[in-house]
Every structure is written in structure tokens, then in C-alpha cells.
Description:
Structural class: mainly alpha
Distance between the termini: 49 Å
Helix content: over 70%
Shape: globular
Number of strands: 4
Number of domains: 1
Amino acid sequence: xxxxxKVSIAGYGMWILFGVVVLAGLxxxxxxxxxxxxxxxxxxxxxxxxxxxxxxxxxFGLIICATKGGEAGFLFLTGYLVEESLxxxxxxxxxxxxxxxxxxxxxxxxxxxxxxxxAIVFRLIFVFAGVWLLEHxxxxxxxxxxxxxxxAWKMYSEEDEADAGMDSHASGSSWMMQILTSLIPxxxxxxxxxxxxxxxxxxxxxxxxxxLVVVELSDLIxxxxxxxxxLGITHDLFLVFSSNMFAVLGLRSLYxxxxxxxxxxxxxxxxxxxxxxxxxxxxMLGDYWPLSQSVSLLMIFGILAATVVSGMMGIKIGKKKGDxxxxx
Length: 328
């Protein structure tokens, strides 16, 4: 096993500290969110809260560096960077789901809150299962690496990001809606922010509940991609879970901040596909050509930086023939 993956900082003290920091962050998140909503300043609130979660993650990374060594802190920050980047693609799908079910912005809060709770549960399950498998069956690293390479190709081959995302969740929502409507009557024209509506003595599911079900399905799918990706960076249970949680807990405010611009981000899927492909290749070849964590972080940061810069410059990387389309 690669030396960097032998880092183990398991201990009750770090888990308790992590719980205290996250709990404090959630309390401040709720208080600040309620304050800015009451003042009608949701965008400003999203900026402050998103910045707060990012700052809290960096602060916790520094704590890990100070108490457990620079290598452990390095692994945490690398995992956080990867998970935060992949989460942006999840937000694109959530935005498409809201559009599909015509959920108004003022009603999206409950779906986001419970959707993020579901993401935490799914990641908790996948993290523990993934770490256990790698500890007891090292050959699983090749399975996870292959899964990441397949996910990278699938993401890259989507020719139109918005249409592909819509098709992907639409196919999933179709059979989920069939299951939902078979269990409870569905009222497609229901308005408001309730998951259920009572009419004529009957209880009906609303588009809010339907959107939540599809969001949870997308959370499950993204967990399948994201957890193997971070397991390609470190196998330490604490580092994997804590970096995941800091990335996920800030998603609600990040969505409120970026909702209008998410579908305009150029080269997003191409850049994320490159990250998945790099980590997948690293997992497949790690036993033979190990890379240091500093090189891995520089590669990931370089890919993401190139994605952002090319998008800001209006450079579109073509997917059909590999062309680079420059702005006019």
C-alpha cells in the first residue's frame, strides 16, 4: 500500500472535536440563515454562510496539521477540494430537478435541507463500507479505480451538459414517480412548500415530495462516484468522512449562491471527468507507480484551475471531436 495511505489518526478526541466543530457550524448556519431570510438578503446570507463553511473546513485542516502532522492535513484538504468540486456537479442536477418539477426558489429550502441530510446518510454508509472493503480486500482498489474511469468517460461523453443532466435524472425520476404514485395519490398541481396536501379527506403527495425523492436518488448516484474518488486519495476513515461532511454541509448555501449561474458554467463536466480519470488511474497504478500526495494535489488543483480559467475566458472544450472552440 502507498505510504501516504498508511496515515491513521483514528482517536476519540478527533472525532469529538469534529462533532463539536460541525455542531457549532450548523447552529451558526441556522441562525444566520434565518436572520438573512427575515431581512430579505438571501444572496448576501449565502455568501457569508458559504464563506463560513469553507473557512471552517480550512480551519479544521489546520487543526489536523497542528495535531496530527502535515501529511494528514494535506490529505484532508485534498479530499475536501475534490469533494467540493464534485458537489458542484450535483448542484447542477438539483437545479434541473427543481426546474423539472417547477419548484419556486422560495419553496426549495426544505428539499435542499432534507436532500443534504440524505447525502450525509448515504456518504456515511458508503464511507464505512468502502474503507472496510479496502482494508479487507485490497483488490477492491482496482474495482473502485475502474468505476472512476467509467464514470469519467460517461461524464465526458455527455455532449450537452444541461440536456444530458436532464435526461439522466428524467429517466430516474420516471420510475421513481411510478413507485411514488403507486404508494400515495399524487397532486401535480399542488403549490406551496408542503410535501403532502390534504384534499377531500385524502392525503396527496406534492411536487415537493417528488422533487425530494429524485434529489435523494441523485445523492445516491453521486455518492457512488465521490466516495471511490476520495478513497483513491486516502483510506483513513476519519479523513474521508470529515472532508466529505465539510463539503456536503455547505451545499445548501452554495446552491443559493450559484443557482442562477450553475447551468452557464463551461467545461464543468470536462474538468470533473479529468479529475475522476486522474484519481481512477492513480488507484489502478498506485501499487506500481505511486504518486506523492503533493503531486496528486497539484494535478487536481491544476485541472480544476484550468477548468475555471477556460470557462472565464469563454473557451469551450468540444466533446464531439476534441476541438477547442474559442470565443468570437
